[in-house]
Protein: SET domain-containing protein
Amino acid sequence: MATLPFTVTTSNTSTSSGESSTENSWCQSNWVLNREGCCIRTAQGKGRGVYASRIIPPQTVIEVSPVLLFTRNEYNDYGRHTILDHYVFKWRDGRMALALGLGSIFNHSSHPNVLYTIDPAHQCIRYTSTRTINPEEEMCIFYGQNLWFDPVGTAENLEPQVYLDQNDQSEFLDILAIDIEVDEVEPRDTSGDPHDILEGEALPFIWKKLQIDEEEESMEDIRTMQAWAVDISNSKYIATMLKWLKQSGLESDTLSHLKRIRKRDSISTLLLSVSSSVPVLPTNIDIGGPYQISVPCHPALTQTSLILKNTLWPTVYAPRRKWEPEKWSIAKVQWARDAINHILRNTAETASSDELPVVAYVPKPFEDEALLSRSFTAKDTRISTGHPLRHAAMNIIRNVADWRAQTSPADPLSDTPKPATSPSNGSLGISDTSCNGVNYLLTGLTLFITHEPCIMCSMALLHSRVKEVFYIVPMPRTGGCGGSACLPALKGVNHRYSIAHWRQKEGNAPAHLDEQIDA
Ligand SMILES: C[S@@+](CC[C@H](N)C(=O)[O-])C[C@H]1O[C@@H](n2cnc3c(N)ncnc32)[C@H](O)[C@@H]1O
Structure:
């Protein structure tokens, strides 16, 4: 538990005299410590904190702190026995870093209004506001999950974050911490026959088992919808009505999991449509009028479900394939390893920018290159675009979608581009030529991403029909692939994808920022 050994002054001489008379004063312009109007004052129960003296707009770089670097030995021998131990964290190359300027004074909040990014080239850390910060408001960063002190007042005055998945900043640091050693992190495995199958512990990743609840196995769990039906008492009209239905334009995929005709006693009932308006039936046939009934929304995935659903309406039985991991050969593992190295290298490149260091990659498939003849890489661009939805996963779905949307609708899986048809609107970027849900899918493709996708991205990936997702850094607070939720395991979703967590080699597992400060 940290008890700070000094009191705080807001005087412009920045002494450590600790007069409490100034404790309740707000920052005034002559005390402002940097040109963005940041100042230091006492933060109740936390020691000192950084405060705004005027309105700070979102995405403003509020502070750039140079860092002081200590070698591991120097730090172990001296630094860690001192107050420094509350302030330093592990730099990317294993040295210990102390942020100068205001950097070491930012307190922790679970709802931070400031993000930080490391700039290794200039040996500094950049602090950026995530939303509008009001005068007199404290500015806080997120230290990580495992705090070494009891946090006080971290969230009550802070509004929800601008970013939908304010990722765990400590984990951003984690990934940065390993990036310069990319080649050692994931070395090529040259031993063995490339066709040899690797299993279990020999694989450099762990498949996440989707905890899928058994679906719709009791009557109250069965999801239903209203559909129009008509009774046909004379069976000689059935064929005529089926023919009429084909030409009526009433048929839709929504009912494709249901049988068309139900026979009960001497009455046959024909399922017509789910349209909101009453279907207009042929008048020259002697049948009753249409009426609405409840029918299952989905096919039956299990025998129990089938029996129950059939009591409502004859339903198609489409058993789900049991979850079973694919066989991974040495060559295929190498393909994945190359992909992981690719995203690590690209993450290293983001370190000198203000962007969040999240990188996504969709390589050409290992088995079936015909599915996609080129690879795609996308970075997180929330900061540079000022657009809260520009997560790396969303960006890559968009990129692949745009590419595929340029292919001929008649040949959706061929990816020869059409002449430039760039996305024109400010929407998600699916260009107008997209083939209505056919061309823009990641069907059969694998996504590699540095950080577990958030809930929004995990859902978008589900819609994209991605085959599998590999991530390196878990996101226990915001992840949608098992972190805070597991989207592909949800009841009722119409696609499931496999999820794998890439294991970091022992000794390379980067520590959390908080552990690093606490080291
Ligand atoms: C990097 S320093 C931050 C500046 C520090 N408040 C000061 O006065 O120098 C980290 C220390 O601040 C304190 N701290 C930071 N955030 C806090 C919070 N939310 N609640 C309580 N103490 C906090 C803890 O004592 C922690 O060891």
Observations:
- The chain is about 20% helix and 20% strand.
